[in-house]
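Good morning C.,

I know you're traveling, so I'll keep this short. The sequence:
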Amino acid sequence: NEKYLKILRIIKGILPLMENNNIRGDNMVNYSDYDTLKKKLDKLDELIKQGEKFENQIMGNFLNGLNFEKWKSACVIFLDKNFKNNPGTARFKALYDSQDIKDYHSMLGILKAIEQTESE
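The tokens, ready to paste straight into the viewer:
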């Protein structure tokens, strides 16, 4: 996220200069898109942190409970809405019904991978 924020600050500094000098064209960057991406990445980070808290609730090789189910549902809804075409979304959804600890770790890994690739 630090790399993303640095790039965002640079772009926000350059755009007003371009506009003041009447520089236009198809390559003009709409930095509101970057704000939107930042909000998505922040929410994704929040979901990752929520998911990491379930490490304390592992019973043998399984996880269950209302909060775990709510977290999985929130993740699927968020991924479908914001990263529908990312292959990780389909993989996460395929693991949705599982309560196996291995699949839980895969779900967290998928979220982290999406966060990393989308912030590059």
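Safe travels,
E.
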